[in-house]
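ingest -> validate -> predict -> emit
validate: passed (alphabet ok, no gaps, 426 aa)
predict: started
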Amino acid sequence: MRTRILVAALAVALLLAGCSSGGTRDDGRVTLRFQSLAWQKESVEANRELVEEWNATHPDVRVEYVQGSWDSVHDQLLTSFEGGEAPDIIHDASDDLADFAYGGYLADLTGLLPERLKSDIPPSGWETVTFDDGVYGVPFLQEPRVLIANATWLKESGVRVPTPEHPWSWDEFRQVTERLAGDGKYGVAWPLKEPVSATLNLSLSAGGRLFHRGADGKVTVRFEEGDEVVPRTVHEQVNTDRSASPTTLGSGGSDTLPGFFAGKYAMVPLGFSYRQQIVQQAPEGFDWQVLPAPSGTGGLTQGVSPQTLSVAQDCPYKKEAAAFLDFLLQPRNTVRLALGDWMLPTGRQALADPALHTAEHGWATGTALAAQLRPAPAQTVRGYPEWKDKVATPAFQEYYSGAIGLGELRERLEEDGNLVLARYQR
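emit:
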């Protein structure tokens, strides 16, 4: 832990080196630092262009673009908050905000945001950034998990191809992957290096909740019937049916693409934004398509942790920062950000843009799933980052590999997990 903190501190120091602190310059001009975590080329360009457009039309409030990274962002931000060096405007994800909001590091935006923005984003989106009675960020981009499939392989196999109107059930999905497997090939490759969010978010489709908040406001972990469906499906595909590749369980999403292109797996469950990498890397003539994730008792519902924009509590110019957020998230600008990141906007007006409803690259399939997206189960749970890293990640990894059974998985998630969460709820 000490090493992680030192590394995070160094990363923040390097990140902020050469950047002036937010405030007022000698000429009276307000300066705000905007830390963006955009990393794809088109996304970085879109963010930088929008900052330049703001600066060109707002000479008295200059925004400085600071390039951040998703790697270890929680530790980086925590160190910068405690050191008084946090950016004024912060790009993050909603499932990372709880500890910062409750810790007093983020500004409550309740009275700062324009009505246009508040009414355009559905209530389910605002739920992801609301803690107690405060709103500590603006959710602006989100992505469902989908199945990226080898279209030629599916067509030749004769299996029923699912649509958002008629998806596979989890049982049917397992049967299909078993049918597609054989001769050293697999029906599916699960990239589960980071297994927790994928498992919990997809489990909403089967009625899973995992986290239960009592009347006293405290959260406990209960691994119930609906929570078992997704992990049991993966476990059986890997260890019983041999229809899922065991070697990709420790891989990230990008790591599975070479094998997918080489015909080793028929499908890979990935976030919607991975389509960009597929377009860039797929061999010429490779035919692929986007399919909805399987459906359960909860239909196509799945959890998401939208990307968010927040304002630091220490920012001396919160109204100006909120005005920049309003500009950045105008519908036309949000569409630019969504296209750059290959994700979906949370705002209704931007989501309705024709550019996001084309059949090409599966955009229409993704937008058809947008209405089914709900806040991730761990959204408002204090201590979630520690629970995820210390308890859930190793437990799920061992279960998926066959090292432990379902009973031990349940025991570790509940007993060990509740001990961790209890420290944050006293």
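The first helix runs from residue 2 to 16.
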